[in-house]
Design goal:
220 residues, six-stranded mixed beta sheet, five-stranded parallel beta sheet, 5 helices
Length: 220
């Protein structure tokens, strides 16, 4: 079941291992095992998606996208712990932005095996929700179009790819396995398995052909 189905079904409760907002009293040992398992899973996902990687150690030490998501997981737990944790969470997020070039609000909900390639310039807003196995390229934004204190950022389904410089704005839904092309500006829902390209984005109801994906100037 994809993220959008879970959200629409009302199950929006800390489904991501190691990123749940609540501090549920698990033992320190269990927390440590879960965190290490998540790190291993993230490194494996990064190796799979980054053809420039040569070893797990290289990815572990030099991937700003991974460093940003690991920091976010801690910031998200602080954010969900109550008002006393929110300022430390924001400070941690700001420090992470300074080091990695990736800005993720501590309130954003992000799934497993999330990977940001290169990292620089990525922005993810407070009410964004991101599913499992999502990949963002540098310069991508999951942003808002409203000043109201409400759900104002995108919901991104499982297995989505969002290209370099793309802007996904407002409380739109990006369906599972969809693709958003480089520099596209998305302000409306994108169906599952579709491709969105252009400014404003136009939706093709099918995924791009693998041969088209060879040219990153067109898609990602």
């Amino acid at each position: 079941m994809g993220l959008l189905s879970r959200v629409r079904g009302g199950r929006r409760d800390g489904r991501v291992r190691g990123t749940a907002a609540s501090l549920d009293g698990r033992s320190d040992a269990a927390d440590l095992r879960g965190a290490l398992a998540a790190v291993r899973e993230d490194v494996t996902a990064a190796r799979h998606r980054d053809p420039a990687s040569t070893s797990d150690l290289q990815v572990l030490l030099t991937s700003p996208g991974l460093h940003a998501i690991w920091s976010h997981r801690l910031a998200h737990r602080l954010w969900g712990a109550g008002r006393g944790g929110r300022l430390p969470a924001l400070l941690l997020a700001q420090a992470t932005r300074s080091v990695t070039g990736v800005e993720i609000h501590p309130g954003a909900r992000i799934g497993r095996r999330f990977f940001i390639d290169h990292g620089m310039g990525v922005v993810i807003g407070e009410t964004a929700e991101v599913g499992d196995d999502v990949m963002l390229y540098h310069g991508a934004t999951l942003g808002g179009r409203s000043m109201e204190r409400t759900k104002r950022h995108p919901t991104v389904g499982d297995g989505v790819v969002i290209g370099a410089g793309a802007r996904v704005l407002g409380p739109v839904a990006i369906g599972d396995e969809a693709q958003v092309g480089a520099n596209a500006v998305v302000v409306a829902d994108v169906p599952a398995h579709a491709t969105a390209v252009g400014v404003p984005a136009r939706v093709r109801r099918e995924r791009a052909h693998p041969e088209e994906l060879v040219d990153p100037a067109i898609w990602i």
